[in-house]
Design brief:
By secondary structure, the protein is α/β, with parallel strands linked by helices. The chain contains 12 helices and 10 strands. α7 (about 220-230) links the parallel β6 and β7 (about 235). The longest helix has about 40 residues, at about 5-40.
Length: about 375
């Protein structure tokens, strides 16, 4: 039995213990929050992808499986030519920090692009580039290869985004900027006016910068295509992504192979001075004959620049890689693209639709045309 005096001390002790626990919990929560903030500002997991452990000259000797056989469920081991360096450097850090401050999204980060360090840092050609993703980070479509978030009704557009984007780009001193966007099927014009306004704001602050827009299909609405094509941009890009047979399986059902070709063709009709561009992912189970046909279809649609790169499974929820295509095979497609008459064909395992080496070359073409 607890006496009155003991009860008094017991209550005091409990009060002290509760205060100590509360203080400890608050301190712990503060520490956790501090760690979260540091992690948010620091490098992501993708930033720590290491260099290959095999030198380039030994890539041909790699004896790992490059293609998943029918019925196999396991993921293929990453071959050495798909391992990239850690992003670093002053330019990289500067762009990353300012993007966070202005709450701007980039497809470089959202799509986990392996070339982020090279593009943001300037790379060997010194043409510093970045790819800004407009209209938020949530898409109304659900393509099975893409890691961008999806929703039927994303957040409303930020009316200040065109101005904020233009201000940021002007301060970076970039030579070439790529604007891309999520699909916004919830908007009457698909967001085409918002993108066009951003292009105009950028050109207003820096008339010499080259602007590429990697845009959706706008459900095939040609009035939206015209809005973008006549906005003052230099390169109109829209990705076909894969071969015709795989399109319903790889892309959202609202995307259409023939519609993509039509959009690219009409963009040139609205503005003869545009360079048109598209991209194909390899490694999804396509055949050589299907890749060849897709390249021919793009040329017939008037597309001048083409990129081909390796499909990389972004998460376990997305399509698995069927095949890792060798660098030699990518070289074959580069040669084939040149034979078909593309002004520029960028083909390689790590090449993406907004690849910096391509932008360096396209910049040269645009300067010659002006």
């Amino acid at each position: 039995m607890i006496r009155g005096k003991d009860l008094k001390y017991s209550a005091v002790t409990q009060h002290i213990l509760l205060n100590v626990r509360h203080t400890h919990n608050v301190a712990a929560q503060d520490k956790i929050e501090e760690i979260r903030q540091r992690l948010a500002k620091g490098p992501s997991f993708q930033d720590f992808v290491q260099h290959s452990d095999l030198p380039k000259e030994e890539w041909k000797e790699y004896d790992g499986d490059l293609r998943r056989q029918k019925g196999e469920n396991g993921r293929l081991r990453l071959p050495p030519w798909l391992k990239t360096a850690i992003p670093m450097g002053k330019n990289f850090a500067k762009i990353k920090n300012q993007l966070q401050e202005l709450k701007l999204a980039t497809v470089c980060e959202e799509a986990r692009c392996p070339n982020i360090g090279e593009c943001w840092g300037g790379g060997e050609h010194g043409t510093q580039t970045a790819t800004i993703m407009l209209m938020g980070d949530t898409c109304t479509r659900g393509c099975r290869f893409c890691s961008v978030k999806t929703a039927k009704n994303p957040q409303p557009l930020d009316p200040l985004e065109p101005t904020n984007t233009a201000k940021a780009i002007a301060s970076w001193g970039l030579d070439y900027i790529v604007l891309t966007s999520v699909d916004r099927d919830d908007l009457p014009d698909g967001g085409s006016q918002h993108i066009a306004e951003t292009v105009k704001e950028i050109k207003l602050r820096n008339p010499n910068i080259f602007v590429e827009c990697l845009v959706p299909d706008f459900r095939g609405e040609l009035s939206c295509v015209k809005t973008i094509a006549t906005s003052g941009l230099d390169v109109y890009a829209h990705n076909i992504e894969t071969v015709e047979k795989l399109t319903p399986y790889v892309r959202d059902r609202r995307a259409n192979y023939r519609q993509t070709l039509h959009v690219l063709k009409e963009a040139r009709r609205f503005n003869k001075n545009l360079i048109t561009k598209s991209s194909i992912m390899l490694g999804l189970g396509e055949t050589d004959e299907e890749v060849e046909q897709t390249m021919q279809d793009l040329r017939e649609a008037g597309v001048e620049c083409l990129t081909l790169g390796q499909y990389m499974q972004p998460t376990k929820r997305h399509l698995k890689v069927i095949e890792y295509v060798t660098p030699e095979k990518f070289k074959h497609w580069e040669d084939r693209g040149n034979m078909l008459g593309f002004l520029y064909t960028a083909s390689g395992p790590l090449v993406r639709s907004s690849y910096k080496a391509g932008e360096f070359f396209i910049t040269s073409i645009l300067k010659e045309r002006k």
